[in-house]
Amino acid sequence: MSSTDAEGYIAQEPDYLGAGHTVRSWLLTTDHKRIGILYLVTLLFFFLIGGAAATFIRLELATPPGDLVTADTYNRLFTLHGVIMVWFFLVPAVPSTLGNFLLPLAIGARDMAFPKLNLLSWYINLVGGLLALAALLLGGVDTGWTFYTPYSSLYSNSYVTLAALGVFIAGFSTIATGLNFIVTVHTQRCEGLTWMRLPLFVWALYATSMVIVLATPALAVALAMVVMERVFALGLFDPAQGGDPILFQHIFWFYSHPAVYIMILPGFGVVTEVLTCFSRRKVFGYEAMVFAILGIALFGFFVWGHHMFVSGQSAYASLIFSLLSFLIAIPSAIKVFNWSATLYGGHITFEASMLYALGFIGLFTLGGLTGLFLASVPIDVHMHDTYFVTAHFHYIMVGGMVSAFFAGLHFWWPKITGRMYSELWARLAALLMFLGFNFTFFPQFILGYMGMPRRYHSYPDEFEMWNVLSSAGAVILAVAYLMPFVYLGLSVYRGRRAGDNPWQARGLEWQTASPPPRENFGPLPVVTREPYDYHRSDEEPSAREGDLDFPNRSDTETR
Amino acid sequence: MPEALHEPFHDIGKQRSAEEAGIWIFLASEVIFFGGLFLGYAVYRLRLPEGYGAAMAETNLTLGIVNTALLLASSATMAFTVWVGREGLQRATVTGLIATLALGTAFLAVKGVEYYEDIRHHLIPGHPDFPVDVPGAEMFFSFYWAMTGLHGLHMAIGLGIIAWTVHAVRSDRIAWRETAHLHVVGLYWNLVDVVWIFLFPLLYLVGR
Amino acid sequence: MNWSITPAQASTQAVAFDQLFWTMVGFSLCVVTLVGLLIFVFSLRFRARTGVPRKTVATLESRRVEIFWTAATAFFAIFFFWYTSTVSLDAVEAPPDAMEYHVEAKQWMWKTRHPSGVREINAMHVPTGRPVTVFLNSQDVIHSFYVPAFRIKKDVVPGRTSTVWFEATEPGTYPLFCTEYCGTNHAVMTGEVTVMEPAAYARWLETRAEGETLAAEGARLFTSAGCSGCHAEASDVHAPPLTGLFGRDIPLEDGRTVTADAAYIRDAILLPERDVAAGYAPIMPNFTGILEDGEVEALVAYIRTLALEGEGR
Amino acid sequence: MARRTTFRLAGRAVGAFVAMLLLAACSIAAALLLDGLAASVVPLGVAVITAGFVAIAFMEVRKMDAVSAIFAGVAVCFLAVLFGLTFTDELTRAHIPAGFEARTGD
Lengths: 559, 208, 313, 106
Prior knowledge:
The complex is a heterotetramer of chains A (559), B (208), C (313) and D (106). Chain B has helices at residues 12-47, 49-56, 61-87, 90-120, 137-170, 181-205. By secondary structure, chain B is an all-alpha fold. The longest helix of chain D has 32 residues, at 2-33. Chain D has 2 domains: 1-59; 65-93.
């Protein structure tokens, strides 16, 4: 425990890592920073499992016949890949790790509003993950991550119930985290931190939480209905009893389309922080960025039907969903253009996290544009459920989101561990990831246009060439993903001390020690200036060295 | 007495409103959760009106009315608990909680009796002796079981929390006077009640 | 090794599709180039080491820039919605003279039936130059009927009939895929669609053993399933006569009136207690579980021909 | 003093309970006595009123702060979106029963 003296300064406090070394001190912690680390460990574990499944999938598809694994095994592999990656990696990736660690720091708070709930949500996530893993160890699930009825409810002989329960439970973990974030942002902002002074990372987490809280229950109820159909033989979607499998798709996508924004919105926030810091520039069009984030979060709820253009949904409904899907391109485009414009007139340096962020913009642009193809009804009719769709959402989820995750991880690594990693290796990994990613997934656009359906264990010979390329790219990508594990891992033991603010960034989280003390701040900061004040509004942006005499964003009066 | 103020708050009023905001956000997500079930019910009702009507005749209206009365009463006792809790009246609070607990348990007991009768009448979708031979009747009962089942699950969770709260208030294990604990439990319980207020006409009345 | 990047283009829809598709590819290339250039040029010019003078962007100026690209994006979004949806609106309804094919999907095969009654498995022969409507039914889970060369796809959802139509233009053999994941052998639930010139198609039909038409199969079932015991003209049992029934309005016992369309007749076979015709006792047995889906379909087709004969057509 | 407060609050709760019982009675009576559309609409309308009553009298929505109000409101709006767009599909869809051809082809 820390002791606070009369002036509010915390005397000689160990940082949060040194606040206790027992396993118990970690497993029963209510410190948001430690919970962030707990999440990081579990998420990386799931990322490795999901990645291993992806490797097997690409190996199998390197040749046209199904020769490496059986069809049943293949179906279980891609389901495993989807379920683990979506619900146990992508959805919680940035919010639960970086968000948990940084949100209170970025708003000048001592902790989340509900620290115990925060810890509880990690345990709930763990229980959900273990159930899903149990389903995998017992023999796997073969429904695909979408759990479409009636296959999942009446025909599949795999462990659907267990896996669905795992996802159901993990859903409550994300709801708890989202709820915690919202209340924290509302009640814990430090003095002077008005809404329009919030960093965009915080805005992004706030919007994400909103989507999490209001969309996840739809998934919960859809899965609960599938489980009830399987276990109690209630024919909720059973055509023999008059049930409609398309209704399941409506409820499922009411969650799962907003879920795409749950995954990508935090990435937007991370990239904004990184871009402004390394271009030493105020973010271009702060208000527009805020409204774009909120607009995407809101509109994300109105477009789910574009997943159902060929399902037998009515043509009128399809047109409405198509229009709404085209409209959501507007806020997304605003973000891309504003990021590009942020570079204008800056003092740009190319640290590893900046490379990841720039890569993110490129890949997200491509992913977003191909989204327009799928928003259009006649084009989607040909592209639906082909590799075009696979490529499209991997550009958003992997090219976009995972790049952003790595950008954030590298950006805040010195803050989290207090150590610097090898910049050279990090830049190399960033470049390799960008190349490997495009190598893997660009050929899949072509495969999709040629008509190769997804979830195929074997395929006709005419698709061979592009599949071979894609599999070759996957090898590069796998190496690129493993590299950070090595150099980041080594940095914890060997890295040089980072100092409080190695990037001379302006966020509040950089105004405390690295790693931060248990209480985050000595006296709580008081914000007197706009966010991203890398230069005064009437001043030219200045290079990094010149920043040092720049007045601090907050003064250090005692509250 | 336990400490009312928890990290990271410095102000009990702010902490209380944070707790209330938290439960309201959770209730908002519950609205969407039950909304999915209501959507399914509505879509099929529109498609299979005869089946729904014929099947509804098989539900036990008397027990439905009894349960509605029980749950409305429990909602009132819960609200009473919150009010007296705010005044700091320990005995009245415990009494209110126990009354809510008793009424809620009675609801589940009546529901159990109703389930027993339903099963005896083979009102189970897909059962070979399902008594109503109109398309859609089984779908109605699928939703009957799913909706009352999930509602019952929410009740059971609520009763568990209330039972713990009785103990905690009586032994002063929590700072129930200062924190929003009772209000939070009350809001959850009232939402469960609101869900039933819609379930009752949909499962027992409309189109009977 | 095959380096091609385009699928065969073998239907009228494929032509329209490719025009749309490549327009959007062109537009996307422009946007990617624009964003790429912005990032590349700014990164190069404003990298820390250069001595170029920095300047901040005035608020008014940046507002103008933002409004410009918001408006531009909005314009393109609406434009592409209009441009693509006019095509999809045109394609909703099949032409009325389309040939009727029936396709039954089950784990993991396609059973197709020609208008003439010829049946095939995992194969389908169609003539060029004539619109074809495919009626799709599933016996188990959701499948999806996908012919890349035609750029058409439709989910086959159990419990309802889906339709999709195309007009083939280029003779050749094209793959047919199932694109909705349907279980273990999803990847091998494939087939071939063979497009032939009308003359060649006619010759091909002749070489096939004369398949039973749907109505002929229905006529056979009418006897073998026992329907004729009550519904034949000469029967002693008091049951509604079926000649001329199809398409008429039938008064029901409870006072309502229904049209004897396909759905009604199907229900009358599978759920006879539901809508009993006025003046008849509810004695019709329930055929649920006795007749398969395809058989009910055949019976309804037969009853329809009875009506057409009754009108002297 | 405490006793008086208790009785006053108990009286308020009982009053509210009686009001809700009356509403429930109305909806039962409407469902059993009315015919056609009214037999469906009236009980559901009464349910909405009762739910509103619980929200105001017990859940004290009028004292709710802005965050809670926003989220409760947004949840109801999104529920409306879920229903609205799903029914847009449901009501404009061409329902062709399973296993059959729709039009005459000869």
